[in-house]
Structures are given as C-alpha cells and as structure tokens.
Amino acid sequence: MVLLVKKIIRERISESLYWKEQTFRLNCPAATLSDRAVELTYIGGQYGDQKPTPFLCLVFKLLQLMPEREIVLQYLHDTDFKYLRSAVDIFKILEKLKLRGQAGFRLTYMDEFIDDLLTNDRVCDIALPRVPTRAQLEDLDKLEPRESALESEIESGDESVASGGEDD
User: Fold this and answer.
1) pTM recorded for the entire structure
2) How many other C-beta atoms can be found within 10 angstroms of the C-beta atom of residue 97?
C-alpha cells in the first residue's frame, strides 16, 4: 500500500518537519494517529515548494501501518472526531473542505472530494487503485440499483412540469 505514494513524494514526506516531529513515533492507528487527525484543518497533497501537507503525511503513515479493517471501520463510525464522522455529520458539518494545493487554498465539497476519490487516478498526489463503477457493481448484483426521487417525479408525468407550470 505504501507504494501508492511515489518514491519522490515518500522522500519529501520523510524529510518534512511535520513527519519528523508529529508522525515519527506514531505506531498505533487506533489511538495516536487519530489524535493527530483531529488537529487537521485542511486536506491536500503537496503545496508551495513541493512540501507535503500534514494530511498527506498522515495518509502515508496510515498506509505504512496498514490497520485492520475493523480499525478503519471504527474510524468511519467514530462520532468524536471532526474528520472521522458519520455520513450525516459529514454533510451537516464538513460539507465544505479546505484543500491546499500548489496554487494555494481553495474550497471543495465533501461529495466532490469523494467523487474524486472514486473516479480519479490521483488525489492529493497519491495514485489510487481502480474502483469498479456503480454500474459494474449493479451488473454483478453486488449493489441494488440506485433509485432517484427526481426520476420518479419525472416518470409520473407531473402535470405542472409537463404543461410548463401554466394552469388552464
């Protein structure tokens, strides 16, 4: 998993001050890594003069530690930490994320970031493994087809929509 991060970026991470001071002794993903994660104020890969962000350093450390699936699920269901919340809390509290890149900071949205994780080859300077599309998983009967509330309204032939909203 560590090889998802290119060698040059791994070297930049290991040479960074944040890595040396904040992540060097982290060896238990369930406790100490989450303590550092709650301190994050933005996400991102590299910035400025190719410096790795604290987010990238922690992602790399997590890849090094390779926590068991149960620990990752514990992170995802934890309600005490800002960047480790339930799906509802993500959209209520974390809908907007601050992303640091080469050109500086910009705002992004959680659903946009997740879409990037699912569809792009690289996010935050990390090469991501291919994930099957939802349609492929539906074809393999691994997921139920998604039902859209908007689609059912369109199919019902709502009179006001069909007539352009004019009453006769």
Assistant:
1) 0.61
2) 17
